[in-house]
Amino acid sequence: MIKKTFVAAMVMLIAGAALASNRSKGVTLTGYLIDNACAAKNSGNSDKIKGHSVQCALMEPCVKSGYALYADGKLYKLDKNGNEKAEAILKATSSKTSPQVKVDGDVSGDTIKVKNISEVS
Q: Is the pLDDT of residue 63 over 90?
């Protein structure tokens, strides 16, 4: 009886931990924008990500691939709303390379559901 109760308690504990880890977390991150097509090629090289050209990020295949934020040594894909806002920032920036941005949103796995994104001056 005690063994069954212990096993049931452990199953519930593990299930609760799994559900908690899948929940999104609200964050504010500062990093650099890069399109997903080029991010895949440069994921291990922060200098190439920071130096990635805005001109490339606005090419049709790159726009279609969507965008990511490189922050704290990690790439976070942006959701649809974030992609639209990132594209607008890339079109408006005076920077020739990946603009530094601040993103507020909810992280789930490696994706950010963007609430707000703005270029850092």
A: yes
